[in-house]
Amino acid sequence: MSRVRVKKRFVAGAKCPKCHAQDSIVLFKEQGVETVECVECDYREQQAEAEVAKQATGAVIGVFKP
Ligand SMILES: [Zn+2]
């Protein structure tokens, strides 16, 4: 157990691109970087929030970066 305890929230309707499990994707910030992780397998990705939302839901909600 080397993981730092961080706030994770499930992405509703998201599907894991690796194991294809539904509602298994959690989104949280790790050192300021938006990170998506699957709770069913070891899938993990770090990227900009807009891209995460796009991949997870297939639609851009609208994120404005400074
Ligand atoms: Zn998975």
Shape: globular
* Number of structural domains: 1
Along the chain, the helix and strand elements come as EEEEH
Total number of strands:
4
The average pLDDT is 79
What does this structure look like?
With 66 residues, the chain is an alpha+beta fold. The protein has one domain (9-57). It has one helix and four strands; from the N terminus they run ββββα. The protein has one helix at residues 49-57, and strands at 9-10, 25-30, 33-38, 44-46. It has a four-stranded antiparallel sheet with strand order 1-2-3-4, covered by helices on one side. The protein is globular, with a radius of gyration of 12 Å. The mean pLDDT is 79. It binds zinc ion (ZN). Zinc ion (ZN) is lined by residues 16, 18-19, 21, 24, 38, 40-41, 43. The site of zinc ion has 9 residues, from loops. Pfam families: DUF2387.
Could you give the topology of this structure?
Layout: E1 9-10, E2 25-30, E3 33-38, E4 44-46, H1 49-57
Antiparallel strand pairs: 1-2, 2-3, 3-4
The structure holds zinc ion.
Zinc ion (ZN) is lined by residues 16, 18-19, 21, 24, 38, 40-41, 43.
Please tag this protein with its features.
alpha+beta, YheV, 1 helix, 66 residues, four-stranded antiparallel beta sheet, 14% helix, binds zinc ion, 4 strands, globular
Write a short abstract of this structure:
It is built from one helix and four strands. It has about 70 residues and is an alpha+beta fold.
